[in-house]
Amino acid sequence: MNMAKKKSVEEELEGELLNEDDESIEDSLDVEIPADKTKEELADLLSSQLEEEIQGREFKYLQIQIEKDNDTEYYIIVRHQSHGFMNYLVAQVLKCKGVDFVAYKSTSLDPPRLYVRLEDGHDIKAVLKDALGKMRTEWKGMKNAVAAMKL
Asked: For residue 123, what is the domain's CATH number?
């Protein structure tokens, strides 16, 4: 009978993970991690670098799909947007002329759906263009205000 002791799965994995030829997690990052930083300071550093990376991207299009329920009610599927953006979009659409009701529903399985009820004679595309134009104007104003601040 072979009495040789078998390595446990954990010991084998640990040996593979701690191979000296492999680079450490810190080495695989593009970020130099100072040793004297606390966890909170490191989190702030990494999140600020992530924000800089995101700001460098150009987002040109909002992916939407408009579905007509009846003459005055529409369902608009808005892809790849957050809860915060959807709340802001609802607030801006409500300010538009001809809008009777706006709400949205978001689940983990489906992209957010914006429900819009218009008064008779109003076009959904014109309402959405108006709302997005208002959003763009507000964002430009905010950008200019931040740029004018002396930090």
From this structure: 3.30.1360.10
